[in-house]
Every structure is written in structure tokens, then in C-alpha cells.
Amino acid sequence: MTGSDLRTVYAWTSGSKAVLGAPGAATVLPAKEQLTGLLPMQGGALKALNAGPIAFDGPPPAPIADLVDRLLAIGALQVTVTAGDEQLYTVRPFRGATGGRAEASTGVLSRFTVLRRDGGELVAENPRSWCDVVVHSGAVAGALVGGGDTPWTARLWSDLRWTGHAVADDAVETGVFPTASWSPHELWFHRRSTVGDRSTSWAHFGPTRWADGRFPPVPAAPDSYPGEPISLPVPDLDVLTVPLARAVEERVSTRSFDDASPMTVNELGELLYRCARTRGVRTIEKPGTATTELPSRPYPSGGSIYELEVYPVIRNVVGVAPGMYHYDSIEHVLRPVSAIDEPAVQRLLSPASLTLADGERPQVMLTIAARAGRIMWTYEQMPYAVILKHVGVLTQTLYLTATAMGLGGVAQGYGDTTAFAEATGRDELMECNVGTFVVGRPR
């Protein structure tokens, strides 16, 4: 097979078509892009595209090449490269093409490009690109990782460089700060959990309740841990009268605590009651949809879903034995989860010492977990990003309340999610560690 066996096939992207109007004019839907000054050959090509794909064995005539560029610029045209009877790959835009095509016969995959299965297709995706590349041939998949040379290799790398799925060498992305500073998973998370090129239709983004009718809703309350619960006192909410402005101004991150005068179970109960208790649960029933439960707590939560749970890991608190507990926010009790000397609990505690002065151990570490299914049942693409926002608002609520109570606290930016799963016995896909907050009596 030679390079001359390559064919380029053009077809509308899903939902696109041309509506021809007056001579030399057309409207491309759904973009509503107006094309004017069309030559007869270009008008004929639009009619042909409406009927099905059109193919060229070499570069298309100049008028058609110009039309192709105009259609690519609005994301209305996809391009498939074939060799003989075999489809190699398809450039499938999800927005208008950017940048010009440059001749390039070599390159390396961008560090942000991933290959994944989507239904029956193998798709290359890149958060910095304007298109996906659908891989139809195993030989193409091999070529992406340097698997030899073929008559179409140069065309492949030229297209990958054009689409942003490949770069000349690693230094293009690792040698400059903006791209070197982003890890691939963080950039992917950022782009796929925000409104952008792939989600402006809202068809599969946001509170779609995609699971309704397929899976039962996740209840507001998790399964209880066995063991005798420890009752917590209910504080008088009117006693704490520190002005909000003062609490905000005096809030600091406390990294050293007084073990000779630790916080008490009453103070721990008050902090949890003021910040994380469930004030009530509404049941929403609508014809044709699943019945859902919407709690209310002191901090805000998207859709009133409240997927967060608090697990106090207690080392030194007057009035309660050391151990790991689950805060039952509905009953306002502590339910024993695991002994303090369990290896998984110790691994969960250990990173907190990196946050505290001189490697101290926390008096109390509030491990914040997410029952991810609570929010993922309703939301698409964005739920994990929303979970982290909820961790932020709960953390600030803990900070300000602890300050008003004369306690000290400090948030951590990391946690051992594997240790959490072992200590609690929870499946990480059902409930996972997403934040921690150390609290106690400041020195």
C-alpha cells in the first residue's frame, strides 16, 4: 500500500446539514452559520454532503478545500482517513477547529491525550483540543505509541499535530509553565466538570436525574454502624453570640493544641450540632419519578442533597473514649466505627501530624466523607466538583464556629482515602474520604 491509496472522507457532524437558499448562499444548521459567495462547485458539494459522505483520493479542488475549512471552523464537518477499504481514524469536532494545518510527519502524543473506550469505539480525547479522534484501526493505535512506520504515518501525525492531540516533542508542554503546571488529571477534571465545549447543550450535564428509573435513589441517611451510640448534648443555640465579623476576623489556622486541657465531649457535640446536624428531611414525591429525600443542615448544599458525612477520629477528648466514630447527624449521636489503635485508623491520623506543629497528634480529626451516590444519582459530569465545593463550605462553617467557641482548627488538603475505606468498611465508590479538619483546644 502506498500513500496514494489514502482517501479523505468528509461527512456532516451529528445533527449538521446545509439549507441552500438563494444562489451562492446557504445556512448550516444547527450553528445557523450563513455561507455567502458560494461557487457552483461549493453549492454542489453541500448538496452532496446532505445526501451522504463525499470522498477524495488526494487533496480536494481548491474551492472544495476552502469550503471544508469554513465548515471545520464552525465544527460542522468530520474527517475520516481510509487506506484501501480500511477506515483508519476520524477527526470528530465538538466545536470549531482552531489553528492552521501544518505539515508534520512526526510527533509525540500530548501528555493530556487519553485513549478510552466509548461504546464500541476507541476514542482519543484531549481537554485542550477542539475535537476527538476516533481510532478505527489497531494499527493506528499501535502507531500512537511509536509502533512502526506505515504509508499513512506521516498523515496521522500531521492530523494529530493539527488537532492538538500531538506535539513536536515533550518540551512543548513540559518546558513552559502554563502546561507544565497542570497535571493531566487536574486539567481533565477542570474541563469535564465545568460548562464548556462538550456541555453547552445541557443534555448530559448538571441535575439531569439520569439515574431516575434505572436505579433507586440513595437515601438521606447511611447504614448505621453497630454498637452502642454515644449521646451528645444539644446546645442552646442562643448562647453563642460572638458577632460573625469578629469570628471571621479572628479565624486562624491553629496548629498546636493543649493536651493538658483538651476539648470536652460537650464542646465536640456543640460544634457538630451547630455545623453538621440534620435539621430535618423533606420527602419529595412527583408522579412518574422516584421519591427522593432532601435534608437540611446549617451549611448549604447543591440541590439540598447533603452527601457529606463526618467521622470524628478522637484521641483526646474529655468524656468520650478514643476511637473513630461516625456522627449520626439525624440522631445527633456518635456511633463507634473502629478502635483508635487499629492500623487503618492510625494511617488515617498520621498525615495530620504533617499539618501540626512539631509533629503533634490531633485531639480530634474530623474526617469528611462523601456518599457519592447521593449526588451522582442526580447530577452528571459535575458531581465530584460539587462535592469538593461542599467540603469547602462545611470547612469554613467549622472554622468560624470553632473560632466563636474559643476552639482552634486547621483544614488539611489531603487524606488517606484507602485507610478510610479500611477503617470504615465502606466501599470507596459508595463513600470516600474527601476532606479533613483538625480541631481542639489551642495552646
- Report the biggest beta sheet as strand number plus sense, adding barrel if it closes: 7 strands, antiparallel
Rg is 29 Å
Quaternary: single chain
Strand content: 15-25%
SS class: alpha+beta
- Number of β-strand runs: 21
Gross morphology: elongated
Low-confidence stretches: none
Helix share bin: 25-40%
Order of the strands making up the biggest sheet: 5-1-6-7-11-10-9
Question: What's the tally of helices?
Answer: 14
Look at the structure and give the mean pLDDT.
93
Distance between the termini: 78 Å
Can you offer a commentary on this structure?
By secondary structure, the chain is α+β, with helices and mostly antiparallel strands. It is about 30% helix and about 25% strand. The chain is built from 14 helices and 21 strands. The strands form five sheets. The chain has a seven-stranded antiparallel β-sheet. α8 crosses α13 (about 385-405). The mean pLDDT is about 95.
Features:
single chain; 443 residues; alpha+beta; seven-stranded antiparallel sheet; 14 helices; 25% strand
Write the layout of secondary structure elements.
Elements: E1 6-12, E2 17-20, E3 25-29, E4 33-36, H1 40-51, E5 54-56, H2 62-73, E6 77-83, E7 86-93, E8 108-109, E9 114-118, E10 121-125, E11 131-135, H3 138-144, H4 153-163, E12 166-167, H5 171-174, H6 177-180, H7 184-192, E13 230-231, H8 244-250, H9 265-276, E14 280-284, E15 292-296, E16 308-314, E17 323-328, E18 333-338, H10 343-349, H11 352-355, E19 364-370, H12 372-376, H13 383-404, E20 408-412, H14 417-424, E21 432-440
Antiparallel strand pairs: 1-5, 1-6, 2-3, 3-4, 6-7, 7-11, 8-12, 9-10, 10-11, 13-18, 14-15, 16-17, 16-19, 17-18, 19-21, 20-21
Helix pairs in contact: 8-13, 9-13, 10-14
